[in-house]
Amino acid sequence: MPENSNFFLNKFKTRAFLTASLLIILAILLFSLFSFQSPLSQKTKEIAKINNISLKKSDLELEAKIGLGYSGQEKDLLSSFLDLSSKIVREEILKSLSLSITPKEIEEEAKALDQRTSLPQELNKIKTALGQNYLEFYVKPLLVSRKLEEYFEKNKNELSSHKKDLAQALRQKIKQGSKMQDLQNPPEVFYNIFSLASKPQEENFPFLPQDPNQPFSIYDPELLKIASELKSDELYSEIQDLPTSFRIIKLKEKKEDTFLLEVLEIPKLDFNQWLEKEAQNKVKIKVFDKALEQQIRQQAKGSLVEKLMILN
Fold first, then answer.
1. pTM of the model
2. Residue 34 lies in a domain
3. Domain limits at 254?
C-alpha cells in the first residue's frame, strides 16, 4: 500500500507540473501575441487626430521624405508632425469656408510648379521620394495655402472691420479730450510722433531715434498734404486707410518747414493672425503618442500646432 500511494502521488505531481508548465507557456504566448506589433501595425497605428482626420506613422514617414529634396536627408519625427499637421489645419480651414480643390486643379498646379520652380533637381528628388503620393503630400498643400491667401486678400477689409471700429472709437475718445499717447496699447495700437519734412530728404524712410520721445523723421507726400490742411492741435477729419493699418492723425505743431504729427497706428489683421484665429475656432489636435506630445510641448511651445493641442 505505501508503494502504491507513492506511485499515485508521484504521478499526480508530474501531471500538476506539466499542467502548470503548459499554463505558463500559454500565458507567455498570449502576452507575446498581444504585445507584439508587426511593422505593418506600427505603420497604421494612430499617432494623432486632427478633428476627424487620423494621422498615422506611415503619414509622417511620407512627410519626412520631403526633406530629401532640400537637405538630402529625411525630416525628424517632430518636424514631420509639425509640418504635416499645419498642412491639415489649413485644409480644414479651407473646408470650413466652403472652398474646395479638385483633382484637375492639383494636376494643373503640379504642371505650373514644374514651370516656375527655380530648384528643378530638388523638386525631382521630392517627386522620386514621394512617388504616387507627390500630388497629395506636396502639391495639394501648396494649392491650399494659395487659396487661403487669395480668400484673405479678397476679404481683408471685411475681416479687419473690427480694427476700423477700434480706430473710430479711439478717434472719438481723442475728440472728447483723451491724449493720444495715453491710448497706445501695443500690439493693438501704436503711438508715434512724425517729424514731417516739406521737401524730400536724402533718406526717404522713417528714422527711429534712440530717444523714444523724439519723433520719426520722414518725408511722405500724402501725409504732407493732410498736415498742410490742419491747424496746430487739430485732428484730421478722417481715418487714414493704409494697406496694413488704420491711422488717426493730429497736427501737433508746425516748425518752419517741418510738421510735427501725432499718429495712432492700428495694424490691420494680417494673414497669419487671421489663420491662427480661424484654426483656434475650428481645429483641435489630439496626440496619442505620449513621447511625441511631450516633445511638442517642450520644443514647439507657442507654435500653432501646440496651441491647438487638447489634453488627453
1. 0.76
2. no
3. 161-267
